[in-house]
Amino acid sequence: MRFLTTFQLYDFLDTLVSLASAFVLGTLIGAERQYRQRTAGLRTNVLVAVGAAAFVDLAMHLSGNDGAVRVIAYVVSGIGFLGAGVIMKQGMDVRGLNTAATLWASAAVGSCAGADMIAQAAALTVFILAGNTLLRPLVNAINRIPVNEQALEATYQFKLTVTPEALPDMRDRLVERLESAKYPVADVDVVEHGDDLLEIVATLVSTAIEPRELDEVVTDLERLPGVRHATWEVSTRD
User: Fold this and answer.
1) Interhelix angle for 167-180 vs 211-222, to 10°?
2) What is the pLDDT of residues 60-116, one digit of tens each?
3) 168 in a domain, yes or no?
């Protein structure tokens, strides 16, 4: 058996240290994720860290530092596919980005452990845990700050629900009214709204807006015959 001739106790113990370190550090990261009931919890983060450590350690033993560098590059890209699996889009909301980033960081911890950089892996684990825990109060505080629409980088849409007979005139009226308020229109779409109604959706050219001015446009257009409802909404770019 080739195993009996190639087995070296020192190399085996070195691998055990790398895998054990990745297991312990991955457990610390995963426990925090599991506590918060995230999609990728304890076992997923442990397996990512240990798997990355195993690949890098294998490359270190077979090809040295050059081989490890190539394997680390593949680990980084491979974890990207795994992270994409935990990202979900629900309407305008995107969920799972932080979980995907944590998996990516767990792979970095495992790669450090596999390359025998145990101290660096431990330090990275501390920073990951700090990012997921200590920064939460700051995130909550920022989210409670009222949004200033005039400084917000966003996409604005003005929606006008009209009868089919009023569509041609109201489409022109909407564009004229918005442009007279100094809000140029980038695109206009018409969608069926049900109950024999149509919805004119005007996307504004990216610019700072004054909410009061758009509210005045809403009030003016709702008074016109054939208009059933008028409103505007905002969505952030990222």
Assistant:
1) 150
2) 888 887 878 888 888 888 887 777 777 765 544 567 788 888 898 999 999 999 998
3) yes
Give the residue among 144, 218, 208, 135 at the shortest CA–CA distance from 178.
218
Domain identity same for 126 and 190: no
State how beta strands 88-90 and 185-194 pair.
unpaired
Name the amino acid, one letter, at 190. Answer: V
Asked whether 59 and 71 are in contact (CB, 8 A), the reply is yes
Query: Which domain-ending residue is among 121, 143, 165?
Result: 143
Residue 174 is part of which domain span?
Answer: 154-236
Edge-to-edge order in the sheet of strand 227-236: 185-194, 197-204, 154-162, 227-236
Contact 87, 97 (CB under 8 A): yes
Any domain includes 132: yes
Q: What is the pTM of this model?
A: 0.59
Max mean pLDDT among 125-129, 138-142, 194-198 falls in 125-129
